[in-house]
Amino acid sequence: xxxxxxxxxxxxxxxxxxxxxxxxxxxxxxxxxxxxxxxxxxxxxxxxxxxxxxxxxxxxxxxxxxxxxxxxxxxxxxxxxxxxxxxxxxxxxxxxxxxxxxxxxxxxxxxxxxxxxxxxxxxxxxxxxxxxxxxxxxxxxxxxxxxxxxxxxxxxxxxxxxxxxxxxxxxxxxxxxxxxxxxxxxxxxxxxxxxxxxxxxxxxxxxxxxxxxxxxxxxxxxxxxxxxxxxxxxxxxxxxxxxxxxxxxxxxxxxxxxxxxxxxxxxxxxxxxxxxxxxxxxxxxxxxxxxxxxxxxxxxxxxxxxxxxxxxxxxxxxxxxxxxxxxxxxxxxxxxxxxxxxxxxxxxxxxxxxxxxxxxxxxxxxxxxxxxxxx
Length: 375
What we know:
The protein is an alpha+beta fold and 375 residues long. It has 15 helices and nine strands. The strands form three sheets. The protein has a four-stranded antiparallel β-sheet, with helices on one face. Strands 5-6-7 form a three-stranded antiparallel β-sheet, with no helix packed on it. The radius of gyration is 28 Å and the shape is elongated. The termini are far apart. The mean pLDDT is 89.
């Protein structure tokens, strides 16, 4: 076949097949020592040059056949849609999916190559107007950074088209951020507990007040994660990759120990032996029945316990490890002290938690949180 050379772009050449209007890209494949011609499926020289420049921008070399059938990613929506299968395999899949949907809706049509800081400022303003926090908007944009990085590594997005995504959460922002839930007193927590109508809500709340864990971790815990031999609860399931929201291994407090006995296999928090997706609705309803001031959620207990430990002299490092703000230290000395199998592992935090739970129990009238109803 005879080809007419029209334009050279990088290591590629745009050609026309003589006698036809069809355009091709010519490339030399060093691995096989041959020159190949790949159809660009167009008769427009302008469109052909755009396709070939995209190959060069994406770093494609050698035979461009596979790259030609892959549509270059240009917009926010396209790169996020490309990244979605990766997000679905991550431990933070739920948040990632919500983040992708939010960005697609608010800035999906934006071309990545042309995005500037004002575009991201507008996104932040729109996201805050929808009621999400600055930290959530910051995490949302982290998903876009990861999506762009993967697309560039896979040569679906030219690296010079990757926008500079600003960081909107400084340390000062984090320090001054309001708690995610109103901090509750032990008496208020007791009133909430007495207003709970379902066993799975009671069990979940008992585990929260004994571990100060995030509700997502509690809902994921199975009976297999309870190590009664060593008195530990592993909040991170085997095989689950840890995220920045670290799920620690905690000592089972004396006030939680009865609630770890005689558990059937499967999820600890369950409804008719099925896993529970959320307890926010039931928790909020119980808060209303308890006539609490408002603004309470499961984080309210976490914050209350963290402050209780601090007031009772527990070291900040120990509190941070207990709450999962820090992963276990890497140094040998501190690892020995804060090893789950050490006899004094989080000892002071554990004692403070037990005192906290017993104070709540002294105010409850309907439910006995020191002994589960099945014992």
